[in-house]
């Protein structure tokens, strides 16, 4: 052990109460930072997982048509100049020839799955009730590659839906409203057309109310029949190897394929902004604890400097340099910081684990996602950020007393005139 | 124990000439030292005596490079140190000077052994086992071999001052500077500490400069230098 570290350790242990106070503040600062980030990120991650699982990373839904117009203007001596101008971009709803687009997307290694979806509003009726909803026509095998629909089935199965002609998958809330269950029949029609009969082969719960309340999945051909759209689809749903790259891939699709592609980050911008604001606001709140930790450390070291001026003079008289004195005080900060950071991380991790086992009030949350317990994210960066913040605060707070100690003149101290 | 210095016995190891020092600021500024010259030789014990406020301690701190003069020159082992930077003066203190202060100035959270080892650890001349052995030997020579593991707070005033003497000798300095080393001790302990300091210093061929108010202690030194109003008289 270096002499400076040895002295620092002994100085600290002589000021146990002040040291424990500083330590407690650091533990709380680090621990609470981890807990708040784990919980806010946990819910955000669950939300992102839910929306990507339901609607994929990218939706391609409109063809881009740039309207170009030419006009001629006559100048003075009979010279006619033709001017061409790109007008505002036009979007043509839906995808008329999806096969070519799917083939192009299949060549993109970033795309792990493409599902053609035909969507439309319909009237749905059971034996006892009628309601409105939205039909989603899909190829189930394609769709399972771009969504987690299979994992959201709570009654029946995907296989039953796949193998049974005229089968349907229906959201739990819609099924409840229609008072139907598995293997019951529903009639689906659009705009007063002849209703078509389907059998409920699976009931799903995504946790997103808007989906569970109105969605009914049919095969693509059945949906085309119900919606009277023999060709084309409403949109393509894409899943990416790295969903975080959705904006980049969307931009590339727009540029290269001239289709309007919407990444999930844009689709859910308002919710993501809300989560981000929540995360920042809770981090700011917790920073106060870390700030207090810095102030406590400053106080502890300032007190030690005042009480140890004679010791500083002794050390200086024995050949310890100003840098040694600075190091002795910074070592004290490092010791408290290290112990505080380790305990803070353990406290943060243990509390995060405990919170993850706590049930949410009123049976849980549903609406934008479904959760029965507090959701937490385990991310090493939360620990790195928490410790880094504490390091910055505490070391900044420690530099002033450490430098003050180093500036003390040993002659002034032994003479009793040190300021 | 042998002194680390290459200086020969009787040789001048510390000298100063024309030292001036002002203390205080503005209207409170006092001309404490008014051109003091002094030298200390190996194996000699010099006492600086005089009334309070005459500049004895100020001179001692200047000689010990704890303070900087406003004028004049200080040489240690032939090297002019008065105009050097803080790092050079700090290094010289660690290698050539041992201090004994009036109020013991032990580091109370450390044991007697650790206090004695502290200057050795900084200088780093010896490996840890040799440092420990030397510290034990020094504590034994001041009669505290049995109490080497006691904290500073567990030692009496006389014992603390004896530890301070052992600590001052730890790096085998050529110069021992003592500011009222017996000023805070009873008669018995005063005699004990003074005897220790002078005996060990003479054995090691070190120059001892001590400031004292005690005429008995002063009379037992090899030379006495009375001071008055910032000058030797």
Mind sketching the topology for me?
The complex is a heterodimer of chains A (419) and B (233).
Chain A: H1 3-14, H2 16-55, E1 58-75, E2 79-93, H3 98-106, E3 111-125, E4 130-138, H4 140-146, E5 153-156, H5 158-163, E6 167-171, H6 172-178, E7 185-189, E8 196-204, H7 209-214, E9 215-219, H8 220-227, E10 235-240, H9 246-257, E11 259-263, H10 264-267, H11 269-307, H12 309-317, H13 322-356, H14 380-407, H15 410-415
Helix pairs in contact in A: 1-13, 2-11, 2-13, 2-14, 11-14, 13-14
Chain B: E1 12-23, E2 30-41, E3 45-49, H1 56-63, E4 71-76, E5 79-80, H2 86-96, E6 97-100, H3 112-123, H4 128-141, H5 157-168, E7 175-179, H6 187-204, E8 207-211, H7 215-219, E9 223-228, E10 231-232
Parallel strand pairs in B: 3-8, 3-9, 6-7, 7-8
Antiparallel strand pairs in B: 1-2, 1-4, 4-5, 9-10
Helix pairs in contact in B: 3-4, 3-5, 4-5, 5-6
Question: Briefly, what is this?
Answer:
Chain A is of the alpha+beta class and 419 residues long. Chain A has 15 helices and 11 strands.
Can you give a write-up of this model?
The complex is a heterodimer of chains A (419) and B (233). Chain A has 15 helices and eleven strands. By secondary structure, chain A is α+β, with helices and mostly antiparallel strands. Chain A folds into two domains: 3-53 and 271-415, no CATH class; 96-233, no CATH class. In chain A, strands 3-4-9-6-8-7 form a six-stranded mixed barrel, surrounded by four helices. In chain A, strand 1 (58-75) and strand 2 form a beta hairpin. In chain A, helix 2 (16-55) runs antiparallel to helix 14. The longest helix of chain A has 40 residues, at 16-55. Chain A is elongated and about 105 Å long. The relative contact order of chain A is 0.19. Chain B is α/β, with parallel strands linked by helices. In chain B, helix 3 packs parallel to helix 5. In chain B, helix 6 links the parallel strand 7 and strand 8 (207-211). Chain B starts with 11 loop residues before the first strand and ends with a strand. Mean pLDDT of chain B is 86; it is low at 1-7. Chain B has one domain (12-232): 3-Layer(aba) Sandwich (Rossmann fold), CATH 3.40.50.300. In chain B, the strands form two sheets. Chain B has a six-stranded mixed β-sheet, sandwiched between helices. In chain B, strands 2-1-4-5 form a four-stranded antiparallel β-sheet, covered by helices on one side. Chain A binds chain B through residues 3, 6-7, 10-11, 13-14, 310-311, 313-322, 324, 409-412, 414-415, 417, and chain B through 23, 57-58, 61-62, 64, 66-68, 86-87, 90-91, 93-95, 97, 99, 101, 103, 105-107, 109-110, 118-119, 121-123, 167, 171, 179.
